[in-house]
Amino acid sequence: MVHVETKKGPWTEQEDVQLVFYVNLLGDRRWDFIAKVSGLKRTGKSCRLRWVNYLHPDLKRGKMTPHEERLVLQLHSRWGNRWSRIARKLPGRTDNEIKNYWRTHMRKKALAKKKTISPFSSSSSFSLNSPAREFTPVTENNRSFYDTGGRNVLANNIDKSDFEVDMDEIWKDIELSEENCNFSCQLMASPTWDFCLDSFLWPMDIEGQSKMVLPISDNFNSLTFYNQEMTG
DNA sequence: AAGTGGGTCAACCGCAACTGC
DNA sequence: AGCAGTTGCGGTTGACCCACT
Prior knowledge:
Blueprint: H1 13-26, H2 31-38, H3 44-55, H4 66-79, H5 83-88, H6 95-116, H7 151-158, H8 168-187, H9 222-231
The chain binds a DNA duplex (21 and 21 nucleotides) through residues 8-11, 29-33, 44-46, 48-50, 52-54, 81-85, 95-97, 99-101, 103-105, 147-155.
């Protein structure tokens, strides 16, 4: 067993480019393989985290809208610290983001609110016995951006409790709010949104500051085997 | 100007669950 | 069925920034 020293700490722009390249090439599933093949001295785990929390093109960045805040508050009351589950209900938000947000903003608000009135009074639109309803925001691949595979693939399919909550009103709220904030959301897009596999170019040539050279890993030959394996 | 405290965010860790052999 | 490898999740930490004193 050859021990490869793994790098930790903040990701560099170069590493991000590398990761985006290999994820576009291999898909966002086989993280360990991506970590090895890319030549990044990162663990698969670290690669996945970086992709899910920062590089994924469907990520919405910027401040939470009031509707998202409300949704987090309500879902947290319902599910507790099930951040990934909550994240699946908020298009473009990650569990990490929501978790961080909760710690700072929402916990305060929740406590304040608790003092006045419970968010789940008898008139709440939530119901344990509401009819199941498909709600999960999906990408063009018909799966949440948040779902990069693994055990969650199965969990997403069978976890019917995800849909136990009748959230029509909340969802309408989100749709309304997103209509209103569409423009600003686009402006807040992730730095990798414009990365294009066709050109392998980053839109950063402004001021000539970034001639990104993608280092092709020594392990790149492994891709040959991988592609053969995938294409049969 | 320096110190301090709170907010924000990215990243790591440990554990549990899943998958494939 | 059992095991090893991989992936996902939730908790936690630490760096950075900014406002305030």
